[in-house]
Request: fold
Amino acid sequence: MKIIIMGCGRVGAQIASLLEHGGHEITILDTDAYSFRRLPSDFGGTALLGNGMDEEVLKRAGIEEADVFVAMTQGDNRNVMAAQIAKHIFNVPRVISRIYDPLRQELYDTLGIEAFSPTTIFAELVRDKIEG
Reply:
């Protein structure tokens, strides 16, 4: 699959590495070139400097042929904007986004964007450890 990841933080870089080693064609975007240091030295995908909310940057990343778009920046607003562009302008079949504020989950669902909240996931893990 052709996968575009917006955000080369710790999680974005890890996802890029895992998927690239799984045989997928990966392009990872970030607005800060220094972020790409998180990618492994053997990363065979493409690291592209640019804003994932910019349609021209997305076209350079190959969004028109992408199977999946993943928004993994630190900002919920940036993630939802880029996810909407990928989903509704470029018709990417699968769009996944991280959201820190779990109260926004319903909004993302309404927009047709698969979203997950690490806040909720971690809280549930801690609860399970306490109760289990």
Notes: The chain has a mean pLDDT of 95.
